[in-house]
Amino acid sequence: AAAAPAAHLTPAGQRSPAERFPRGAAVICVARDSELFGQRGTVQKSDDAAGLEARFELGLTQEERRALQLEVQEIIARQQASLNWYELQDVAAQAELDLHVTRQILGSLMARCDYVREDIGMNLLCEAKGDGAALCLPGYSVKSQGRWRFSELAIKALRDYHAQFPEIFKALRNRYNTDRDLETRSAFQDSRDADYAAKQLVKYCNACPFKKLRLVPAQHSALTSDGIEEVTRAVDRAYRQLEGRPVHTEVLHESEALLRTADAASHPPAELFPHTEVLLGQRGMYLWSRGAVPCGAKGTVVGIYGVGAAQELELLLDKESFGATDLHGRTPAMRGLLAP
């Protein structure tokens, strides 16, 4: 069998523009100074002699993108100014509970429910097994300088839990051996059906946001669910500006301005990646060619967890994507992404 023809190489030993960007290939404009920056388009012509032509539909203008980023930053600033954090004794006082009870219910609380072990605690203050590293719940709890603090959202959830199941809180008052599981049958001894009450307790806990959210490292920053909703509305408003606008297309000819989304060997310019730390509310593009969502998807950073190589980012995508989730209820469906 005849060998496949060798790829045409430029004098520098690289593939020619026609090979890098074949006709019909999906591309992204990566030229920062272009109105098309971040837009996805299609290669219409690709010939080493005739040149390269990629066609794009114009999206948000540079001015509109800057205005959206400014609006998001204002949302972040308002949340940080209005979000109050309380120490454990203050949480107990505001919820009108004993400190001993509050400490138990805010952590991990194992209980026997119909011969099955269930964690009915709120998991707002936890420590990892092994190294004992603090694990927090975004928007609910933080630990800094060795001290736990809790948000108004945590206090509200604690009050609701107490109102729904006062029997559990009453049982915790006299529970001093925390190594033993709480017996829900004893807690619901005055109930007409203790087993049914225990099942309702587990159902309630599993439906609460504090059970759906994942635990995160102590070193983190994250928007609350209300803050994410506000950012979502701002992003959606910005894109609604395009609905009544005539479709405008533009053409690019420079291969340096393009990134081919399906080519794993195609690398975005280094200047696109921030040399400073990523900030909450920062907007950007997802540029992984074989990731969970399409390369070029735009989004807003709504959570930053950890530091260095282990750092993870929560993104609120501008548009729905099949590879996205709701980040355990923190974002709208199909618009949340956890990215390394």
UniProtKB/TrEMBL annotation:
Residues 278-339 form the 5'-3' exoribonuclease 1 SH3-like domain. It comes from the Eukaryota. InterPro entries: SH3_12, XRN1_D2_D3, XRN1_SH3_sf. Residues 21-241 form the Exoribonuclease Xrn1 D2/D3 domain. It holds the Pfam family XRN1_D2_D3. This is Uncharacterized protein. It comes from Alexandrium monilatum. The lineage of its organism: Eukaryota, Sar, Alveolata, Dinophyceae, Gonyaulacales.
